[in-house]
TrEMBL record:
Residues 149-353 form the AB hydrolase-1 domain. GO terms for molecular function: aminopeptidase activity; carboxylic ester hydrolase activity. It comes from Pedococcus cremeus. InterPro entries: AB_hydrolase_1, AB_hydrolase_fold, FrsA_esterase. This is Serine aminopeptidase, S33.
Length: 370
């Protein structure tokens, strides 16, 4: 019996080794969950799905081993806080890894098959050249009033998710260009669900709308973006003088430097979250090979066009982010909060008011030059 007990103790993982196992397991859970679960939801079973789910399962087992080792190293009632502390630490590591993995290893999404014809709009297919031989797939609904809008979808979706907004804008005569973001839908390239390709991709869209083929008037081009698309449009303001107006709905931030308002609003909890976002940004840059983009505040500051920020009443953080952006250029930035709306739910929640405010803003900003 003594020999058996000694062998059991030797087989146990010590506290130091348990920490290593715990961290390794949490990294695997984050990487596996960030890769496997989105791929399973979007494309079903694939090599990426299988690899991610295997890493997830192995990671869960290792986290369990690490927590058990830590609890065994504690004594008496200290085992309860030890178990809680190790669990919280594991969850933090999972979050640090899962968010950038999910944002940079995006599964293909062909869309839901709908086109502008599904909402009664005439359109044509176009390709927008971007960098390194890549191109964006887009639909163009021709203008009837000489002005046009780039309509940008959010992360994890495609151009078909913005058809309701396109129908409203087209009803008022606006040309509407609906691109798939890079690596999404029928566009080529590697997807990045934090919107870091946005400056160049928006420029490709405005270049098309400025061409004779689009039939628009010079100086009457705007961007309307939802979530990631709104953040892309705000960033593009700094480098694309063709944008005469921007409507951004549900924009909060696409990198850590956009979220300095967290500590102001939430104190020490906000400071912790800002630290987490720093790691998210650093790891996303390492995984994607991209440098973090300019901040949204820099886009607003350096741009000259008027901006309408639409925020969801049920998402206070959107209001805090909008207030920080409005402070950068209060003379050019308007904020409309939609009571009772969830993220990018302005049109669904208040359709008549969304149409009145958004179209009215565009009408003022894009009125013909006399």
């Amino acid at each position: 019996m003594a020999r058996r007990a000694g062998a059991d103790r030797q087989r146990r993982v010590g506290p130091a080794a348990g920490v290593v196992v715990l961290v390794l397991g949490a990294v695997l859970v984050g990487a596996g969950g960030g890769l496997g679960l989105p791929h399973l939801a979007k494309v079903g079973w694939s090599p990426a799905t299988v690899a991610g789910l295997l890493a997830l399962c192995l990671g869960v087992a290792l986290v369990a081993v690490g927590i058990v080792a830590g609890v065994r190293a504690a004594h008496g009632w200290w085992r309860v806080p030890a178990a809680l502390g190790l669990t919280v630490a594991a969850l933090l590591v999972v979050d640090l890894v899962a968010v950038p993995v999910a944002a940079t290893m995006v599964p293909a999404d062909p869309g839901d098959g709908r086109t502008p014809a599904s909402v009664g709009l005439p359109f044509r297919e176009v390709r927008l050249p971007v960098t390194r031989g890549e191109s964006l797939a887009a639909w163009y609904v021709p203008t009837r009033n000489g002005a046009a809008v780039v309509l940008l979808h959010g992360s994890g979706s495609t151009r078909s998710s913005t058809l309701r907004q396109a129908a409203v804008l087209a009803r008022h005569g606006y040309g509407v260009l609906l691109p798939d973001a890079r690596g999404h839908g029928a566009s080529t390239g590697r997807a990045m669900d934090l919107g870091w390709h946005g400056d160049r991709d928006v420029a490709a869209a405005t270049a098309y709308l400025s061409s004779p083929e689009a039939g628009t008037d010079p100086g009457r081009i705007a961007a309307v973006g939802l979530s990631m698309g709104g953040e892309e449009a705000l960033g593009a303001l700094a480098v694309d003088p063709r944008l005469a107006a921007v409507v951004a709905e549900g924009a909060t931030g696409r990198q850590a430097a956009d979220l300095g308002w967290l500590s102001t609003r939430y104190g020490w909890r906000g400071q912790v979250q800002e630290g987490v976002e720093d790691v998210h940004t650093w790891l996303a840059a390492a995984l994607s090979g991209l440098a973090p983009p300019r901040t949204l505040a820099d886009g607003v500051r350096r741009g000259r066009a008027p901006v309408l920020l639409v925020t969801a009443g049920d998402r206070p953080d959107e209001g805090y982010a909008a207030a920080a952006l409005r402070a950068v250029a209060p003379a050019r930035v308007e904020v409309w909060t939609v009571p009772g709306a969830d993220h990018t739910g302005g049109l669904a929640t208040a359709p008549a008011e969304w149409e009145r405010r958004v179209v009215g803003f565009l009408d003022r900003a894009l009125r013909p030059v006399e």
